[in-house]
Each structure stands twice: as structure tokens, then as C-alpha cells.
Amino acid sequence: MKTDTIAAVATAMSDSGIGIIRVSGDDAVVVVDRIYRNAKKERVLMKYNSHTIHYGFIVDKDETIVDEVMVSVMRAPRSYTAEDTVEINCHGGILMMQKILALCVWSGARIAEPGEFTKRAFLNGRIDLSKAEAVMDVIHAKSEFALQSSVKQLKGSVSDIINKMREEIIYEIAYIESALDDPEHFDLESEGYGDKLLIIVDRLKEHIQSLIQSADDGRMLSEGIRTVIVGKPNAGKSSLLNKLVGQERAIVTEIAGTTRDILEERVSIDGIIFRILDTAGIHSTEDVVEKIGVEKAKSAVEEADLVLYVIDSSIALDDDDKDIFNIIQDKNTLILLNKSDLSIRVTEEDIYSFAAIVQKPNSSTGISKSGEEKNGDKYQNRIIRTSMREKDGIELFLKTVKEMFFHGNIVYNDEVYITNMRHKEAFEEAYDSLVKVKETIICQMPEDFYTIDLMNAYEKLGLIIGESVEDDLVNEIFGKFCMGK
Prior knowledge:
Elements: E1 6-9, E2 16-24, H1 28-33, E3 36-38, E4 52-59, E5 65-74, E6 85-92, H2 94-106, E7 110-111, H3 116-123, H4 129-140, H5 144-155, H6 157-181, H7 193-223, E8 225-231, H8 237-245, E9 263-269, E10 272-278, H9 288-302, E11 306-312, H10 319-328, E12 333-338, H11 348-358, E13 382-385, H12 394-406, H13 421-442, H14 448-465, H15 471-478
Parallel strand pairs: 1-7, 8-10, 8-11, 11-12, 12-13
Antiparallel strand pairs: 1-2, 2-6, 3-4, 4-5, 5-6, 9-10
């Protein structure tokens, strides 16, 4: 691990009222002491106590005053990096921050790598890896849920769960190893140890499974529901996008086929983040450009969390609608019968009948007239009458989305959501190891076989918090951080 002194601008590189240059390392105080003078023009930074802030000036090599500043001193280990740290609060002009940073480098520091301050906090044991990743999640949070979830993880919500599980697993490993080393005092078979361990393993599996299942909702709540708008040309797809975004982002004309490429927008509505993709109208065409747009629309549906199928209810359904139904029938779909202010030629009954014609056998998400779940569907398709011109049906649309994804309400409670896909993968691997432990117990194999998969589960959980993690992974994670953090 590098222990030299690093420096970086910790605030945004833009004109602002205040800018902060952060310096960390064994010589942090020495580095800043060379360019800092107090109100009496004295060089006294080395004398200041930890966690104090002082008024003074940053000076150039020839003692010329560069800026009027406040300097904070934080001695190891009571700092963000657990190293000596000094923060220079200066005026926030870009040129000023760059000049003071350059003076820090002249004085003995080097420019920090992206995420190096947080990386040092992790390597110095002040935070674990899951908390370190939460730091970046807090910075990039795009919704209230994402922010609160990241803050919880920064406080240790995930770490606490992991540590409790690992403590329980390592206790059982130690118990088995002790029994195998001292068979005279431990008789695992007569104690019925296998049955006792089975109860523990089942409980751990259940807990991990619930965390894995929270990952999809956690991802959607933090990153947004990937929402794809599909339909035939001129059905009102772009008008829907404009209504949801609140401004004219998509060109809307009476000419069919105006939208030829995918337009993506991110919008927060009633606490729900939508990543909305407006696509080209899906229909049979000989136009080369339109064909490309249609294929892009079909590909977007495959990755969608939610499909909004916009139908012009003033025009009868046709073969193009059959094509669209075939594409969406395995997706979570809301069907919007648009242009309900015009004469109606497509009813809900028409949709049910039409969908039945193209329904694949044993399809997982058919449109259900009864509203009852089919084949264990998690969500039901819904049909909503809308008019983009009259703004009808938008409130019902939002209410239905909440019911489909969040049981009608978005509640920021104490439940832990897994929002990091690296964490999800590690949980899945730990779960698989516990499944093998259970199989070993059921098959009545020797007890020393238990410890192999128990230890594997222990190690996989440890990857989440950074125990026995490889350097390449650490570098990859912190390489995604912003400068100065």
C-alpha cells in the first residue's frame, strides 16, 4: 500500500463560493505547513491540535499571498482516511483551486488517484468495502430511496448482516473442527449435530434468499424502472413521453413514423424514478431507416422492467398489433388505450380476445381479464384508458405502477435492500454453498465435509465487506470513484 502524501480538489471543479483541497498522508501537515501562514504571517500549522480549524493564508514560493483560507487539521487515526489529513477551504474558483493544488504538489504531495482517499480508508481499516462502495452510491444517488439506502449501508446495515452471518458460520466450523480433533469429548453423531446444523443452515439460506430477492426492487428504486414505450406509429408514444417528462422532449406530429430512433429520459414521478425509452413505431415497413428503428425497439423490450404499450383506440387492431403482442407477452406490461377522447374502435374486450389469439402456451404473463394471477405471475398486466390531449389516465397509470412494483406504496423503512450487483453475486454464491452443506447433511456424509462448503460460504460473504478480497478487484472498485474522494 502506498503511504506517501496525496492531494486533490475534493469539491466540484466549477466556480463556486468555496473549494476544498484535501491532503492526506504521513506528511500532510508538513506539506501544508510549507505554504500556510496564520494571520500574523507565521508558519505554525505543525503546532495546531487535531480537529481544529484556523484562519490564515496560502502563500506562493516567494511568500506572496495566494488566497485567504480556513485550514482544518485532523490527526491520525481520527480522520476519513485514518491518516493525518489537512483540508484547505479556499475561494471556489477553478483557477484558484488548481493553483493551490499545484502548490501542495510543489510542497511534497502527489495528485491523488480517483477514489484513493476512500481506498486508504478501506485499507487502513476505518471502513469495510461495502461501506466504501456506499460512499460512491451516496454521491450518485438520484432518488430519495437511493440516498437513504446508501446512507444506511454507509452506517453499516449490510456490514452488520454479513458480520452476524459470518460469526455464526465460523462458530459452527470451529465446533466441527474441535469435535474432529477431540472425538473422546465430542460425539457429533450422538448429539444429533447434523439436525441442529440443518436448522441453522436453513435459517441462513432463508435470510440470504430474501436479500437476493430484494436486489431487483433495490436496483429499480435506486437506478430507476427501465420503461420502454412501444406501439404502432402515431399511437401517442412520444406524447406520453412528453407528459411524463413535463416538457416537449420528443417531436410530435400528425405524420406517422416521426420517431425513428430511441430517445431516453430519466424522470422522477411521485418518488418513482423512470428511465423512459421512447421507441420507433413497430410496424411492417420497407424503409431501411425505419426498419433499424423497429429492431431497436424490439431489442429495448427485452431489457425492460416495464413496457408501456400505447394503442390508438380510434383505429382497429391489425397484424402489426399481433407482432407487438408477441414481443411483449413475457414482459410486465401496461396497455394504454390512448386517444379515448375520439370515437372508440378498440375496447378492453378486443384486447382480451386479440391477446388470446397470439398467446403462447404456458406463457408466464398473459393478459388476464379476471385479474387473477396466472402461472404464479408476480405482476398482472393492466389496461388503462388514456388521452394525452386531455391528460386523462395519467394518475391511474402512476397508481398502477406502484401496485405492480411496490405493493401500492413506496415506504422508506428499515428494510435492507441490496443495490450492488457485486453483493448480489456474492450472496448467490454463498447461498449455493449452503445448499451443498444441506445436501451433505441429508446424505449423511462425514462431518468434515460440512466445513468445506461452510468455509466457502464464509469466504463469499467476506468478499462483500472486503475480507480476503483481491487487489485487482479493489483497484477496479475505487477506480470508478471521482477525484478527491
